[in-house]
Give the backbone structure.
Amino acid sequence: MKNKDIKEAKRLWEELCKSVSKKRNPFTGMTKEEAIEAIRKVREKLWEEKFAVRH
Amino acid sequence: MLFVIDSNVYIFGFGFVKVPPCSNLILTIIEKYNLHTLRISRRIVEEVRSHLSPEDFAKFIKVINILTKIDEDFVVPFEIAVKYEAKGFKPADAFIAAYTEWVGADALVTENRHFLSLHSNLPFKVVTAEKCLKLI
C-alpha cells in the first residue's frame, strides 16, 4: 500500500464515520452488550438465509 | 501480525455504539499497514452491509479494497467449521472461527462475548479491540 493509499483509506474511513453519525442509528438506546446481541441475531439470520438458499 | 476483524468491531468503529477502541483499531491498522495484515471474508462484509446505507457501504468497500481483498466464503473448508461447531460455536460463529484459522491469522478481533468465552485451545488469539490495540 502506498502512502497516498493510506491517506485515502483514512480519509474514506473518517468520511464514513461522519456519514454514519448523521443516519438513523439502529442501536439507539441499547447498551454495548445489547448491540452485540442484536448484531449476533443479524449474523444468525443471514446465515440461515444463506443455508436456506443452498439447501 | 495478521488479523481478522469481526463485523461487530467494524460496526462499533463506525460510531453506532461508542466503543472508541474499535474505531482507533481500524485507524491504527491503516497507519501501520506495513506491520500488519488484515483479512476479511464475504460473510463479514455482508454482515456489515446489513447495518449501512448503500452509499455508506460503498465507502466501506473502498476502504476494504485499499487495505485487503475480500475472500469468498466457499474457500473455507467445511470440515474446519464443523470442528468449531463441535467446540460449542453456533454455525455462523463457527464459520468465522474457521475462516480465521484458514487464513492463518494471529488473532480474531471481536467484542462478541460468546467468542471470548470459548477461546481456549484455538489456533489463534481472540481479543477485544482494546486488547488488540495494546498488542500492536
